[in-house]
């Protein structure tokens, strides 16, 4: 078992990474009160809820099981968590436990941030995507029909338990989606890790525990470092959004849940790579290595056939990375080096370039 | 014009108190970006929205008008603010302005806390209650059918503008409701202010601007001092809830909006005073002065006829001031001195005492 520390002053917390952690990590050490509410979904609860509850015999433990999928990450379903908390008379000392993927983590974290103006929570991410991404950094929230993650809070857990054993039940498609975020860390800040991923993609897809453990650890380290420097995304933290502005447009345009978040980020990163190449910031070889690695993870490298470049632009204009109507994008200046960029520079030429890149990266 | 400073480190902000402030305070000084969203309700917007908007000609200003009343302080109506923000493509640099009473302030503050994980907001409280209470201290949120203010955040505004001139349009019933919170500050921490209120209640009810200005200033000072010592209510801040646990039960039991918050707090404070008296902590004379002052403000000094003591207990058991099933109450040990108390001490005797006090303070 590896332990990483996310360093955020009095909001610091540990991330545990390893096999068989539902048995090895003592949950009780991270619970202050006597009440516990486990939040899970219809897919994950049958697999792991009993195991988690067996650790919590000394607590007054309740659970609430939500429907599974990104399309349920909204205010209405969030309210089901509040219903359960109030029906069970949970007070300000309750601890929420998020048992599931990124959607469960984001919603449970946001519910914890808001319930009685803030209670404790523990993250138990069960997908690769949530282990390397949403469980680190305290971004919580829900979607709005007009934009992804538009309603939320920065809120940190007591601890994160990334149990690699739980990845054994993960569908292949979701494993690939998780690898999109893993590859992202290589692209934005660690060329050495990028090369390691090129060499070990086969092991990762075969779910080799050592390879998965290293990839998760390196990804969490990367993210924890960036988040420690900029907890509420005033600046540098934005580089974590490589491919996300394009990706969010795909997710919203196709309807949440049609494309998995990681799939949309995969295609979105290809667009960011293409744009960086067109600006002369990536070599042809770097572009090819990037696209090849994304494809080798089983991810789409083209956007959906049904969306026009104008639709992207419209959806990208309501993304959180917009300032005064101008789209900010994360681009690459070489592998392992991301920059926050305003490629529009206010000119119509540059918006034409973005549209052109989107069209190039569309499936025909 | 008086200026008070709420001292919360980097979250500090000024409160302006005085007449004609919609003209005198330059709103633009507290707005960082170019976008502004004014949130108001159907009662207040016709009176003051145009005046506020005329100050904002240099900004891209939109407004959203919510229905008026405590019963609309819920997640669904909150979502109307998010709808307006997204439909108008407001980005992370938007400033929200709360123009209205406590409900508008609480909802706008919570919307600001959550929109894109946090944007700026300005409080323009237009009722006495909101000027002395909800505009200071950063408590924001909405109600849940099972409990008041159960979903929310601690979130501070850029500034608060308490314009006494706007109280001229306030219905008498709401003026009285506001005075409940003013009296509370005398009871919990300032015996001198309590005596001042006894001497000036007639002036306050006649809306004498000097009297109102002093009462608001003293109340805000009181609250600001307490909040600065305990921003997120880990301890001492709880004394601000004198009468509120009983009061919240009345509000929830009668249906939100039937009793005004201040009316419920008025009757609730009488119950807290009665319980303190029964415990031997207030003299008979102190009890009588308290009840007389509350009555002289035009407030109810008895609970509703239709609620049983058991109903109170049931509703009080889901209040936020509950720990491990035991009801914490704010009581008085002499005028001007509040204590946080667990009158139950786990015994059935003490619960019987609470019920007995409730019954005594019920209208027959």
List keywords for this structure.
4-stranded parallel beta sheet; about 375 residues; Rossmann fold; 13 helices; globular; homodimer; Dehydroquinate synthase-like, alpha domain; alpha/beta
Give a description of the structure.
With 364 residues, chain A is α/β, with parallel strands linked by helices. Chain A has two domains: 2-169, Rossmann fold; 172-360, Dehydroquinate synthase-like - alpha domain (Dehydroquinate synthase-like, alpha domain), CATH 1.20.1090. Helix content of chain A is 45%, strand content 18%. Chain A has helices at 21-24, 45-54, 75-87, 102-114, 128-134, 172-189, 191-205, 209-229, 244-254, 261-278, 284-296, 309-316, 348-360; strands spanning 2-6, 13-18, 35-41, 60-66, 95-100, 120-125, 139-144, 147-154, 160-163, 322-323, 326-327, 329-332, 338-341. A four-stranded parallel sheet of chain A has the order 4-3-5-6, sandwiched between helices. Chain A has a three-stranded mixed sheet with strand order 1-2-9, covered by helices on one side. In chain A, helix 4 packs across helix 5 and helix 7 (191-205) runs antiparallel to helix 8. The radius of gyration of chain A is 20 Å and the shape is globular. The mean pLDDT of chain A is 93. The A-B interface holds A 33-34, 75, 78-79, 82-83, 86-87, 89, 91-93, 113-118, 139, 141, 144, 146-147, 149-154, 232-233, 317-318, 320, 322-325 and B 33-34, 75, 78-79, 82-83, 86-87, 89, 91-93, 113-118, 139, 141, 144, 146-147, 149-154, 232-233, 317-318, 320, 322-325.
């Amino acid at each position: 078992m590896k332990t990483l520390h996310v360093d955020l002053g009095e909001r610091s917390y540990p991330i545990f990474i390893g096999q068989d952690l539902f048995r090895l990590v003592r949950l009780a050490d991270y619970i202050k009160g006597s009440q516990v509410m486990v939040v899970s979904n219809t897919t994950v609860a049958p697999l792991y809820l009993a195991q988690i509850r067996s650790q919590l015999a000394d607590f007054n433990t309740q659970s609430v099981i939500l429907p599974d999928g990104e399309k349920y990450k909204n205010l209405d379903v969030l309210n089901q968590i509040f219903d359960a908390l109030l029906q069970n008379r949970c007070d300000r000392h309750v601890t929420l436990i998020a048992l599931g993927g990124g959607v469960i983590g984001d919603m449970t974290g946001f519910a914890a941030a808001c319930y009685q103006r803030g209670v404790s929570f523990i993250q138990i991410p069960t997908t690769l995507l949530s282990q390397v991404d949403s469980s680190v950094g305290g971004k919580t929230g829900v979607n709005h029909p007009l934009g992804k993650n538009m309603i939320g809070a920065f809120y940190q857990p007591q601890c994160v338990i990334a149990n690699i054993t739980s990845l054994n039940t993960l569908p292949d498609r979701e494993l690939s989606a998780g690898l999109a975020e893993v590859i992202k860390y290589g692209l934005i800040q660690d060329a050495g890790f990028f090369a390691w991923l090129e060499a070990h993609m086969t092991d990762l897809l075969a779910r080799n525990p050592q390879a998965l453990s290293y990839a998760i650890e390196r990804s969490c380290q990367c993210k924890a470092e960036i988040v420690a420097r900029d907890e509420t995304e005033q600046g540098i933290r934005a580089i974590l959004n490589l491919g996300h502005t394009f990706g969010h447009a795909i997710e919203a345009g196709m309807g949440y849940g049609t494309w998995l978040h990681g799939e949309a980020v995969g295609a979105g990163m290809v667009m960011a790579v293409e744009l960086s190449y067109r600006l002369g910031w990536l070599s042809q070889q770097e572009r090819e290595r990037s696209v090849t690695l994304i494809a080798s993870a089983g991810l789409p490298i083209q956007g959906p056939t049904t969306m026009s470049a104008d639709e992207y632009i419209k959806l990208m204009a309501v993304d959180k990375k917009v300032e005064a109507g101008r789209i900010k994008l994360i681009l690459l200046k070489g592998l392992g080096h991301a920059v926050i960029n305003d490629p529009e520079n206010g000119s119509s030429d540059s918006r034409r370039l973005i549209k052109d890149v989107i069209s190039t990266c569309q499936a025909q």
